[in-house]
Specification:
Blueprint: E1 12-13, E2 16-26, E3 32-40, E4 45-49, H1 50-54, H2 64-68, H3 93-104, E5 122-125, E6 133-134, E7 144-145, E8 152-155, H4 157-172, H5 176-185
Antiparallel strand pairs: 1-2, 2-3, 3-4, 5-8, 6-7
């Protein structure tokens, strides 16, 4: 008995939305795999093997130039529940960041979201989750994060550092210079 085929039409996987079923692919071994026609957020259409969509191996059309320009920026127009990689809120800091990379690809595929024109290097938590989590991981102790990939933006490393300083000042009301002076005096 052949396995039951899963209909992926309408599902979102990263920047790809499944539009329709395409012709299956037949491998040299004789096995077949279902393929799906997908519309990418950048406007291109690609055909992808269903298993690669479901396991997160393919999340964009592959046109890195279109995605680097921000033409298909992932942080707009998508709810977490529509995401192919949404698995709930019980995740640690590092797992949340891995979820962002799985959902949107490496930050280096994007231009910095602050508008400075630099290449992004890191995914930065925007502080927009109404119920953020606090990291207990030794490398990121006390850092806020979100399990939802939609609360992150790609930033260049210097922009990320400046943004984190601004967030800390906004959250605590303490100027960062005082925090640094106290840390150095201790």
């Amino acid at each position: 008995m052949a396995p039951r085929k899963i209909d992926l039409t309408g599902h979102r996987y990263g920047a790809l939305v499944v539009v329709a079923e395409a012709d299956p692919i037949t491998y040299p071994s004789g096995s077949k795999a279902a393929r799906w026609s997908c519309a990418c957020d950048c406007g291109t259409t690609v055909t992808v093997v269903g298993a690669k969509l479901r396991n997160g191996a393919t999340v964009t059309c592959g046109d890195r130039r279109a995605h680097r320009t921000g033409k298909a920026h992932p942080m707009f127009g998508k709810r977490a529940e529509e995401s192919g990689n949404w698995r709930g809120d019980s995740v640690a800091y590092t797992t949340a960041h891995q979820r962002v990379r799985t959902e949107h690809g490496p930050a280096s595929d994007w231009r910095c979201a602050c508008g400075c024109g630099r290449q992004a290097g890191e995914w930065a938590y925007l502080g927009t989750d109404p119920e953020p989590k606090v990291s207990t991981h030794a490398d990121s102790l006390g850092s806020l994060y979100s399990p939802d990939p939609e609360h992150y933006a790609p930033l260049a490393k210097p922009c990320h550092r400046s943004f984190d300083v601004w967030q800390a000042q906004r959250r605590t009301g303490v100027p960062i210079a005082l925090v640094i002076a106290e840390a150095m005096a201790a």
